[in-house]
Structure formats: C-alpha cells, structure tokens
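Task 17 of the worksheet. Students: predict the tertiary structure of the chain below and write it out as structure tokens. Keep your answer in the requested format; marks are given for formatting as well as content.
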Amino acid sequence: MFGYVYANKMELKLREFEKYRAYYCGLCKVLKDRYGIAGQMTLSYDMTFLVILLTGLYEPESEDGRCKCIPHPVKSHRYIVNEYTEYASDMNILLTYYKELDDWNDEKKISAFLASSAFKRKAQKVSLKYEDKALKIEKYLRELREHEESNDTNIDTMAGIFGKIMSVMFAKEDDEWRDTLSNMGFYIGKYIYILDAYEDIDKDIKNNSYNPFIKLYGQDGFDDYVKKILTMMMAECTRYFERLPILRDVGILRNILYSGVWCRYDAILHKRKEKVE
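Model answer:
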C-alpha cells in the first residue's frame, strides 16, 4: 500500500533531482544499517517524502556524504541522513511488521508469517521507543481488518482509518506544528488508500478479495468519481502543507504534492483505458 507519493522527476531541476535521490539513498542506507537487508527491502518513496518534509520544517543537522552499495557497486552516490531519516526508518519497520502480522492472522499467508517473524524483534525495539505510536498504529490496522471482514464499502470510512495511521507517523514532535502535520498525514494517507484500492480493483475482483470499490466498479463515471475524491484529498493535504514555514527543499516538496502524486494515477488510468480498448 505504498509507493504512490513520489516526485515527477521530469519536472525537477537537475540539482533538485540529485538531492531528492540523496534523501532516498539516505533512507535506504539507514534501513540497511539499522535493520539489515530485510529492512532495506521496505524502502519506499512515501517515507522518503516524510523525511524531506520533516527535514525542511525542522532543518536538523544532516550528514551529506557518498557511499557505494549493492545496487551501485562501482560508482559512489550521494546520501543525506539525519534524525528524521532514522525516525522514518523506525516508522517504516513498525508499519511493515504490524501489516504483515495482520495479514498472517487474517489470511494465514506463509509469506506474511515469515515477514512478521523477521521484523518482530526489530518492531519490538521501535515499540519501546515510540510506545504511544505503536499502540495507535496497531489499533487502527485492527480496525481496518475488522471493517474489511464486515465488507464495509464506505470508502471514506476505510480511507479514513488508514489516514489515521499516517497522521500518527507524520507528527513526530509535540509542538506547534503537530496538528498541521497530523492533518497532512491524514489526507495523504486517505489518498494512498484510495489510489491503492483503485489500482487493485481488477485483481481483487479476480481473486475474490476485499475492495471498497467493487460495488461502484463498472458504473458510468467511476473513473471520474475516483479522480474527484483523490483531488479533494490532495487539496486538503496541500492546504495544510502551505501553512508550514518551509524553505529548505520546498521546490521538491511542491513537485511531489502538486505533480508527482498524479504520475501513478495517470499511469493506472492509462493502463485501464488500454485494457478496455
């Protein structure tokens, strides 16, 4: 359910793209250093966005260096890491563990059991550090599963629960920006959930799996309806974003929020239209 919040690389300046990639590589490095290859496999652009957002707002001291890795074994590449890179990596591990554990309890998937087992100790350490956040994330994921089991097709309810998970993750500090960041996370979380359901609708119908859009799929205006609610979610998200006094990397952040998030939607819509034709 991740991989939807990334930059429109074609619209970034060369220097901005280089820095965007450095944040991404920084998160990859921290996940590998702290949680091994398994942690590295959870890398996502969505959490990279959170790193850039919190870095831009709080402007922490950052390590700006170069290194080599398995994907880039010959030529060294730039990375940027700071306390918010570590925070994002912790939240990523926590969410991955609870999601895989939930999938195991719900569907008894062997892959989910193996993944949850691999992340159990790692997640326990994060839970001790962020006890309140861990309890909330676990609670909301349980609510999400319960609503899915009851076949709740209210998209606002379902997306709202996932939005609450993201709101918990976005608000790291207990300060004057907490509510604004929380609201940003809520609406971007709803956007992610809705777009994920939209992309998976054909697969879920084929596999007889839960999807809140199943009753609406195939009706006239379905694609326009989804685009409308996605637009509403991002309008609210950007409304809160513009309240933040961010100067550092604001061009990258605006690229993601106003353009990048629509790249995946356009690709999904194009693929669906090709299938129909």
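Marker's comment: The radius of gyration is 19 Å. DSSP finds nine helices and two strands in the chain.
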